[in-house]
Specification:
Elements (H helix, E strand, L loop, with lengths): L1 H22 L13 E3 L9 E10 L10 H19 L3 E9 L4 E9 L2
Parallel strand pairs: 1-3
Antiparallel strand pairs: 2-4, 3-4
Length: 114
C-alpha cells in the first residue's frame, strides 16, 4: 500500500515540476516585430500617426524569484513591440514604467511613422 502512495506522490510531483517550467516562460519577440522602434522622448514620434495605447507587463508573484529583472524587462519590451506590430505600428513611445516588486510594467503609445 505504501508503495502505491509513493508512486502517486512521485507522479504528482513530476507533473508539478514539468508544469512549473511552462509557467516561467517569458514573451519572445516575433519575427515581424523587429522593425518596431522604442522611444522615450515624445519629440521622436511627434510627427507620427498615433494608433493606440499599450500596457505591457511581465512577471508574477512567483516568477520574479526565478527570472532576473533584466529578463523581465526585456520580455516586457518584447511584449510592447509585439502588441505594436499587431496594431500596424512601427514605433512605440514609452511614457513611463510602473514599479512593482514582482514585475515590470510599461505604459506606452503605439505610432506609425513614415
Amino acid at each position: 500500500m505504501n508503495l502505491i502512495k509513493i508512486k502517486y506522490i512521485l507522479l504528482f510531483l513530476s507533473c508539478l515540476i514539468l508544469s512549473s517550467c511552462a509557467l516561467l516562460d517569458t514573451h519572445q519577440l516575433h519575427d515581424k516585430t523587429k522593425i518596431v522602434k522604442i522611444y522615450d522622448s515624445f519629440d521622436q514620434v511627434e510627427k507620427c500617426q498615433y494608433i493606440n495605447e499599450i500596457i505591457s507587463s511581465e512577471g508574477t508573484w512567483y516568477s520574479y524569484l526565478f527570472i532576473s529583472n533584466k529578463e523581465l524587462t526585456l520580455a516586457s519590451v518584447n511584449d510592447l513591440k509585439n502588441q505594436a506590430s499587431e496594431m500596424g505600428a512601427n514605433a512605440v513611445h514609452i511614457q513611463y514604467n510602473l514599479n512593482f516588486n514582482t514585475s515590470v510594467t510599461f505604459f506606452a503609445q503605439a505610432y506609425y511613422c513614415e
